[in-house]
Design a protein that fits this description.
It contains 7 helices and 19 strands. By secondary structure, the chain is an alpha/beta fold. It has 2 domains: about 180 residues, FAD/NAD(P)-binding domain (3-Layer(bba) Sandwich), CATH 3.50.50.60; about 120 residues, FAD/NAD(P)-binding domain (3-Layer(bba) Sandwich), CATH 3.50.50.60. Strands 1, 2, 5, 6, 7, 8 and 19 form a 7-stranded mixed β-sheet that branches. β12, α6 and β13 form a beta-alpha-beta unit. The radius of gyration is 21 Å and the shape is elongated.
């Protein structure tokens, strides 16, 4: 295994809005950061079409185009970007070790984690094919494009309830597809859903197929008790069965909650290991927006700069 002798000031793991913003800020602080992209360079925005809610793009922007802008800005500021996936870390002592693709070892005085989270999907071929063409995993991101249209949300937890309620303010009909005969959502969220006149709850319902050639035209569902199938005409299909933070490689080192989100000290990006900072959706299960991820990437870079200064390393 190749071990690089140079000890970097900071290594950034991940290349979504949080990672690139951390790169911009740490570059401007003359930390000469190394950013490792991960297996999904650009993160979830690479499978997002129109982004209209990020400041600075008055006419909206395609997700991949925005991530290319972030990347160029980080590079122009001095961030060194390397393509590769971090497969292991060693935070037992400083300098920290970061292993890329099981073949290279990079060393750093500090590490910023920006590995993001991945939406959980149903695993249907039609879901994959129509992703970005009526299929979405974020109502707050994409709901506006379905204003005045009928949509469906699949899921039974708080996320699904929140998405359905959000969409109910924009859409004439919201079909909520729940696999069981009850929801997992909190009682308050359930009450709000059931009181909403334009949210139609389909109990014991599983999705068979999303219909449409180039865009969503309907969804075929099956009642799990009777086996009866029906087609519901819709133009938008929202998957809200949760997200999984991409944090498995940190399990032996960092504090995380029961679902894997990294725990940071309130109001900061500090993890339980001094010198290791977390930003973006890897530690945010509440907001999960590009703009909040970018903001937390800025926080992590500023925290890392201050911490390195306190250690006499910068």
């Amino acid at each position: 295994m190749l071990e690089h002798e140079e000890i970097r000031n900071v290594i950034i793991i991940g290349s979504g809005p949080a990672g690139y913003t951390a790169g911009i800020y740490s570059s401007r602080a003359n930390l000469k950061p190394l950013l490792l992209t991960g297996y999904e360079p650009g993160g979830q925005l690479m499978i997002t079409t129109d982004v209209e809610n990020y400041p600075g793009y008055p006419d909206g922007v395609l997700g991949p185009e925005m991530m290319e802008d972030f990347k160029k800005q980080a590079e122009n500021m001095g961030t060194e970007i390397k393509y590769g996936t971090v497969t292991k870390v060693d935070f037992s002592e400083r300098p920290f070790k970061v292993i890329v693709d099981d073949s290279e070892i990079w060393k750093a005085h500090s590490v910023i984690i920006s590995t993001g989270a991945s939406a959980k999907w149903l695993g249907l071929e039609s879901e994959k094919r129509l992703n970005g063409h009526g299929v979405s995993a974020c109502a707050v991101c994409d709901g506006f494009f379905f204003k005045g249209m009928d949509v469906a949300v699949v899921g039974g937890g708080d996320t699904a309830a929140e998405e359905a309620l959000y969409l109910s303010k924009l859409c004439p009909k919201v079909h909520l597809l729940v696999r069981r005969d009850q929801m997992r959502a909190s009682k308050v969220m359930q009450e709000r859903v059931l009181k909403s006149e334009n949210i139609i709850v389909h109990w014991n319902t599983e999705t068979v197929e999303i219909l449409g050639d180039k865009e969503v035209e309907g969804v075929k569902v099956r009642n799990r008790e009777t086996g009866e199938e029906e087609v519901i005409p819709i133009q938008g299909f929202f998957v809200a069965i949760g997200h999984k933070p991409n944090t498995d490689i940190f399990k032996d080192w960092l504090d995380m909650d029961e679902t894997g989100y990294l725990i940071t000290k309130p109001g900061s990006s500090y993890t339980n290991i001094p010198g290791v900072f977390a930003s973006g959706d890897a530690q945010d299960k509440i907001y999960r927006q590009a703009v909040t991820a970018a903001g937390s990437g800025c926080m992590a870079a500023l925290d890392a700069e201050r911490w390195l200064g306190e250690q006499g390393l910068h």
